[in-house]
Amino acid sequence: MKKTNLLLAIITMMFIASCSNDDDTIVEAPIPEAPISVVLNEIEFLGDRVEILNTGSAVADINDYFLCLGPGTYRRIGDLTNETASIDPGSFLVVTYDQLNTSAGQINDTPGTGGLGLYTQGGSFGDPSTLADFVQWGAAGSIRETTAVDAGIWTTGEFVTVTTNTGTSIIYDGTGDTAADFSETTTPSFGEANGNAVAPLRSIVLNEVEYLGDRVEILNTGNVSADISGYFLCLGPGTYRQLSALPAVSGSTTLAPGEFLVVTYDQLNADAGQINNVSGTGGLGLYINNTGFADPTTISDFVQWGAAGSVRETTAVEAGIWTAGEFVSVVNGIDNSIIFDGEGDVAADWEETATPSFGEANGNAVAPVRSIVLNEVEYLGDRVEILNNGNSTADVSGYFLCLGPGTYRQLSALPAVSGSTTLAPGEFLVVTYDQLNVTAGQISGVNGTGGLGLYINNTGFANPDTISDFVQWGAAGSVRETTAVAAGIWTAGEFVSVANVEDTSIVFDGEGDTAADFSETITPSFGAENGAAVPPVRSIVLNEVEYLGDRVEILNNGNVSADISGYFLCLGPGTYRQLSALPAVSGSTTLAPGEFLVVTYDQLNVTAGQISGVNGTGGLGLYINNTGFANPDTISDFVQWGAAGSVRETTAVAAGIWTAGEFVSVANVEDTSIVFDGEGDTAADFSETITPSFGAENGAAVPPVRSIVLNEVEYLGDRVEILNNGNVSADISGYFLCLGPGTYRQLSALPAVSGSTTLAPGEFLVVTYDQLNVTAGQISGVNGTGGLGLYINNTGFANPDTISDFVQWGAAGSVRETTAVAAGIWTAGEFVTVVNDVNNSIIFDGEGDTAADFAETTTPSFGAENGDAVPPAVNSSVVINEIQFNTSGTGGQIEIFNNGNVNFDLSDHWLCLGSGTYRQIGNAASVTVVSGNIDLAPGEYLVIEYPNLNVTDGGFGLYSSNAFGSSAAMVDFVQWGDGGNQREPVAVGAGLWTAGDFIPQISDINYSFAFDGEGNTSADWFEESSPTLGAANN
Q1: Does 493 lie in the same domain as 420?
Q2: For the chain, what is the total number of helices (H) and then of strands (E)?
């Protein structure tokens, strides 16, 4: 605390405390009132506010305190506020004091100066004992300074430095009595605790200069507002202009922090403002007044560009705001500006930009790029496109095009197709330049060659300093190549490859200076942006060949038109023919992209064109001329079919358009052709098709399928149906049917029920084949069995290469089964199940080579398409078929017959005469099988021994289970010798016997009882004098 009265209070309190001890009487000394301690805490020195802070511990009543700057400026505190002037400890009182910065309060009438005292009473303001606090600013020597020094609360000659900026204040830091304890701040805090002072910064700078134009931008980079109406711009003598007198583009001369003023200043790039009269040079000073433009104390900011040595450079250097000899590099780009980066006073703090931002904050400088390039050249025509590939506008009226001596032309003198010679960034100029592809512009007089230079002037076309861009095509060695190489914009020996095709152009990719940055395209884009180059593709191909006929189709598979009148077709010696000499079926020898020429070429499939004289073979070459058919440089395309080794194969392989030994597989079928898939040079890129498309685009190849199949067999009759299941016609007159040795018959020799031996796809031939179900054709002589093969010839019926189709029925193991299995058209052991019905047939489902692809049907369809098979009704039935007793009359054999049409598994069935006589057929421990199988096939017999038979009397039942008292379980029954046997009632209940009915006792022990096949009475049985166990009853 800096106040003397506060110090006295502390001393008094210490004295009282020192006189006190434990023996004091209860009479206490009165506690003196705490003294007032108030300070000047904040002064709005250019305004009218003063803040007083109570730094003491008691309420301070300062109504009768006074503020005084000097004679006539004293004011009682209580009169300066509408509230009571009592301040709580730590609180503030802000008053309005109208004497601040008035003449009476200033020091020597200087604005922004003064010395303010806070007095405890009025009367004598020269009395130091009444002065409570003091502060002085702007200068020393205020009227009250001496009083403050005498009071011990100020130091002679000290003052607070201020910037005379409105909106600031002086604030106290809370300790001490010196000028250093006060600071000017741009963040007044009247009525609140003072924070850290933010010192005012007055900084007015040149922020942006349109050095080839007329705009100048001034920025307040400080933190206080500024009136710059009196500032001046000056480049040199006669160029000074006051800011307030210049037209304002935006902003005003009163600039708040961060605000811009943009003015029109017409002296930029004028002769008086240039350095040595050179365009695009200058040095601009910003002055706080016009008292002297050579005076370094008046220059506020400076920038110099294009060169050093401007008139005002020396002044700026002396002022410490520039470095001698420095300047901002510029490219003299129209519409460019120089921008300040916000920090520093050197040339490096400035940059030229292609993106001016007058009236706004400067962004990152976009360095100007001056790039005028050859963008597109119609090398066989007359158009040249020039592009401004930079980021600043350029005048190219003085530029020249030159291919070589005598070919130079100024751009402004050439007819403009589009655009102008003033090019904004990204704009094009297209001109007609009639020197392209003339002899003077070609390389060694060769068509489609040249090297074009773009020059900034005509001071010397061999001068590398004047060449701006270059491109060379067709060959190296153009006249201007050396100049371009020396300029570093081309590589010696490089050139753009071209196809010498009309209506194409060379386009630039936008980057680089090599031949790789240019490409020929079939899609010129003069006057517009270059797209991706579409290179010319010259591709003339064999697209379709009617190898057994006489038609050949040639396709322009490229993207440029072609004249193929001079092309040749050749299969081998003596077969060459020029396309223009061949009859045209459709199209012409001038082919646009995607067009076809179809010609008649009569050498296909003649002996001279075949491979080793084999029908359906050949290798066809398409040649660009007839200078040599063995020359790989002249063969354009090739295809080989049927076999390898054609005469022209070697040439095609050497040319890299065929692979040795490859050929297109063909079926040697009339009306088919070989088609190209549009890509590649291998046999896999060609396919035979049954749908020729000469003169039109090839679709997906539909390969010929040669498939002759057995479609229906009347296995107990004599009809066989053969179907052409492929997609090409077939002559099957030489085919054979064969079941086994001695049964082979040629189709052409068999009676035809319907159809013929020439079968179109989907057609049928039905023949009468009398070997079906004869002993020679059956399997092991069993009725309703067989295996029928269809053969392409009779060279060997055991040869799997000759068997075309096969089907086996009734059983496995037919003579031709092995051959069919070896041919991969049957599975060993498989057969089609049949029920041996003379009215049925076996039909094919149209797919596959297994027994499952055939089925027996009750609805034959010979001569017509097979429908869904209607299978025969299932009859699952077995009967007791024969009983034979042994010679002792007890025991014997029982025969069971499968009289149904499906296998019958007897393993779970039982035999029973009565209680204690039952036997399970599938139980090998109790039943002995004499012959046959327990899984009984249709028409087969099972004979088993049964020890319980009694010749005199018995009732014998066959059961599906061991529920012997159940009629539902009984399958069959027979009774002999007498009625009333134990199982008779069960049989009667099942409807299998008549009560009391029986077969008379057998007359001879060597005979057997045999069933006649029908019925359920004793009359359906007879004595068999010659037992037939295991075979059909007589």
Answers
A1: yes
A2: 7, 71
- CA dist 220 → 255, 261, 287, 347, 701 (Å): 6, 9, 14, 20, 80
Task: Point out which residues pair with 1008 in neighbouring strands.
Answer: 884, 1024
Helices (H), 72-211: 145-150
pLDDT one-digit tens code per residue, 324-370: 999 999 988 888 999 999 999 999 999 999 999 999 999 999 888 88
| Residue 5 belongs to a domain | no
Map residue 315 onto helix, strand or coil.
helix
Half-sphere exposure of 797 (CA within 13 A, CB side): 22
Q: What per-residue string of b and e applies to 760-770 under the rule 16 or more CB within 10 Å gives b?
A: ebebbbbbebe
CA–CA gap between residue 825 and residue 146 (Å, rounded):
132
- Determine phi and psi for 233, rounding to 5 degrees: -105, 140
d(C-alpha 936, C-alpha 1030), whole Å: 12
Is-contact 605 618, C-beta < 8 A?
Answer: yes
Based on the domain organization, do 566 and 482 belong to the same domain? no
Contact 906, 919 (CB under 8 A): no
Residue 26's pLDDT is what?
32
In a domain, 1031, yes or no: no
pTM of the model: 0.53
Q: Do residue 87 and residue 36 come from a single domain?
A: yes
DSSP state of 848: -
Give the confidence band of 78 by pLDDT, cuts at 50, 70, 90: very high
Are residues 401 and 474 part of one domain?
A: yes
| pLDDT above 70 for 14 | no
Are 149 and 22 a contacting pair, CB within 8 Å? no
> What residue type is 664 in one-letter code?
V
Domain shared by 923 and 953, yes or no? yes
Residue 865 lies in a domain: no
Distance of CA 884 to the CA centre of its chain: 88
Centre a 10 Å sphere on the Cβ of residue 1024 and count the other Cβ atoms it contains: 19
Do 249 and 211 lie in a common domain? yes
Same-domain status, 457 and 508: yes
Which structural domain range is residue 575 located in?
A: 541-689
Identify the bridge partners of residue 767 per DSSP, sorted by sequence position.
720, 752
pLDDT digits (tens, 9 = 90+) for 589-607: 999 999 999 999 999 989 9
CA 46 to chain centre: 69
Q: E strands along 550-685, which residues?
A: 551-556, 562-563, 568-570, 577-578, 584-586, 590-591, 596-600, 618-623, 635-641, 673-676
Phi, psi of 989 (to 5 degrees): -60, -30
Distance CA 342, CA 350 (A): 9
DSSP state of 144: T
| Span between the terminal Cα atoms of the chain, in Å | 150
Helix (H) or strand (E) holding 410, with range, is: strand 409-410
| Length of the chain, in residues | 1034
Q: Are 949 and 891 in contact (CB under 8 A)?
A: yes
**Beta pairing partners, 641:** 618, 664
Contact (Cβ atoms closer than 8 angstroms) between residue 750 and residue 726: no
Q: What is the dihedral of CA 897, 902, 908, 913, to 10 degrees?
A: -20
Q: How far apart are CA 438 and CA 446, in angstroms?
A: 9
Same-domain pairing of 739 and 887 = no
Tell me whether residue 702 is in a domain.
Answer: no
* Number of domain units in the chain: 6
Please list, in sequence order, all residues whose beta carbon lies within 8 angstroms of the beta carbon of residue 551, skipping any fewer than 6 positions away.
Answer: 544, 545, 585, 598, 599, 600, 601, 673, 692, 694
Report CA-CA distances (Å) from 115 to 104, 106, 146: 11, 8, 10
